[in-house]
Fold this protein.
Amino acid sequence: MTNSTKESLALQEQGAPLQFLDLGQQFEEIRREVLLAVTRVLETQRFILGPEVEQFEKEVANYVGCRFAVACASGTDALILALLTLGIGPGDEVITTPFTFVATAGAITRAGAVPVFVDIDPDTYNLNPANLEAAISSRTRAIIPVHLFGLVAEMEGIMDVARKHRISVIEDAAQAIGASYRGQNAGTIGCMGCFSFFPSKNLGGAGDGGLVTTNDAAFAERLALLRVHGSRRKYEYELLGMNSRLDALQAAILRVKLSYLEYWTEKRRRNAERYRSLLSQAQRRGNLVLPNEPHGTRHVYNQFTIRCEKRDALRAHLRRNVIPTEIYYPYPLHLQPAFRYLGYKEGSLPKAESLARSVLSLPVYPELNKEQQQAIAEQIDEFYPDAGNKEE
Ligand SMILES: *Cc1c(COP(=O)(O)O)cnc(C)c1O
């Protein structure tokens, strides 16, 4: 056993084993406030929407910097509600990235439209605006860029193409609350922004939750109608909607957590900076590529995702040394069985396909400490022993 292996095992012995995301540690920090919030809701016995949700919506709108926020049951529903608000459905096409969580494209299909995948920029993992024009047809109604891992997509190029062709842009900001791009916050650049409060997101609830942001009063009104069966007055239905409401219990817990979000985000960013210095040698040797944070953007690191050589072997080596990692995402969506009907083949979107084979996400949660990160970096260096001969 090497010294560094011993070190990393010794680290584990001091406490619970290192986790990819340790939400228990976060809960300990806010236990009292969360329990008070839960009790407050139980005492009112108002469980669906209501004042707690309205308050949360105001606080998120204020944090994100937009006029309206409409909470719903999940990030997936946020995307579906946004599409329905634009009247997108059968016969329409919506352009998006194949390198994302399934919900982005699943929502397009659920709304009745057809997802059209466009290849990504490997340096940002996000939609490449240069590929958009070729994908636009007379049926294209919208583009859904995803701010993957917490980095806002190249919105200037995307908005230019959208304006030129008079199509809408819905931001999938599920992983990017608090991120910004050239002075604009994620979720305020397109006509609507969709957020998720799934527990592993930067602002995560104690269950599912989602929200749509917008500056358009008519959209906000329509979103609010669609989430309650299209009903403004009891038993009168103006539109066909859904049941997609946020629970008051979730809103109360999320309000507590929202007040910590900046503090946690800064810790994520500090951890990312630490990885940059700890892994700079491996990057210089060409064994891995660290995630990009282009000038003028604020990355919020929902994931710290590297591209690396011999990804699966590195992952196995780290696992043997009790270091958990994840692969986001092992398959691009255009090659998933569920999207086979769209007719894409292997090789249709080569950048996304190649990334799916080389990406690896390292733990980056706020409570991760310096010693743990050092142990992770040491194991990575040990796996790529002094690769003096490859490169330059
Ligand atoms: C999590 C996520 C969603 C879906 O959110 P849910 O709340 O899980 O429904 C959509 N898009 C992206 C990019 C996500 O990461």
In short: The first strand starts at residue 68 and ends at 72.
